[in-house]
Each structure stands twice: as structure tokens, then as C-alpha cells.
Design brief:
This protein is mainly alpha-helical.
Length: about 130
């Protein structure tokens, strides 16, 4: 799936519209990460866990409250080349991109894991199930 299509679905999930919203940036991020292993929620969570955000991502997946994350945390957890690619596609600076991703990621992961676990299936199918 193209990053922009995925971004559109994520925007619907997050209740956003157009522009450089968190949904469109997440779509670009997942597409960039997907070049190494497929666009998947599990892959994204694994990447963030390996980048030092394990405690935060566990809170987003669980049914409890979401721990916040900041732009610098995202910038540290996501490979530089991936963040720079997403920033270049969006026309934002890497810092702005990381800040917007930090706002959108907890909400998106939380909404995609309502039962407190990562659902099986393609990311597109998981999002479509949530947005109806």
C-alpha cells in the first residue's frame, strides 16, 4: 500500500484531515520502515522498542493510560535516515516531524490495539476494522 493511502486511513482513524497531519506522517513513517520488513503495526512497535521506547509502547498497546513521548524520544528511536526521509517527504524539519509523530503515535497505537494486544493481519485491514 502506498504511504499516502495508509496516511489517509490513519487520518480517518485519528479524526484528522489532510496536510501534514500525524496520520499522513505515520503513513510515511510506516512506508519508510516497511522497506525493510513490511508495513506492520508489530514492526513499528518492534522498531520503537529497540529504539528505547519499550515502556511507552507497552502502555499504548495496553488497555490502561498512554505514557507520553516527546519528539526527541522519537528522533532517538527511529533511524536517522528514516526520520529524514519522512521529513523530506513532508516538507517539515526532522525536529517538527518527530514532534508531530510523538503526538500521533500514542493515540494511533492505542486505537489500533483496543483489546490490549497487537491484532493479527495486515496494517490496512487492522485500520479498516477500526475506522469502519
Amino acid at each position: 500500500m502506498a504511504g499516502s493511502d495508509l496516511g489517509s486511513l490513519l487520518e480517518r482513524l485519528l479524526g484528522e484531515s489532510g496536510g501534514q497531519s500525524g496520520g499522513s506522517l505515520l503513513g510515511s513513517l510506516l512506508g519508510a520502515l516497511g522497506s525493510g520488513g513490511g508495513e506492520s503495526l508489530e514492526g513499528l512497535i518492534q522498531e520503537l522498542n529497540e529504539g528505547g521506547l519499550g515502556e511507552q509502547t507497552r502502555s499504548w498497546v495496553s488497555t490502561g493510560g498512554n505514557q507520553p513521548v516527546g519528539g526527541p524520544d522519537i528522533a532517538q528511536a527511529v533511524p536517522d535516515q528514516v526520520l529524514n526521509h519522512v521529513a523530506q517527504q513532508s516538507g517539515l524539519s526532522p525536529e517538527q516531524t518527530a514532534d508531530r509523530l510523538a503526538e500521533a503515535l500514542p493515540q494511533a497505537v492505542d486505537k489500533l490495539t483496543p483489546a490490549g494486544e497487537i491484532p493479527q493481519g495486515s496494517l490496512e485491514d487492522i485500520i479498516r476494522q477500526q475506522v469502519g
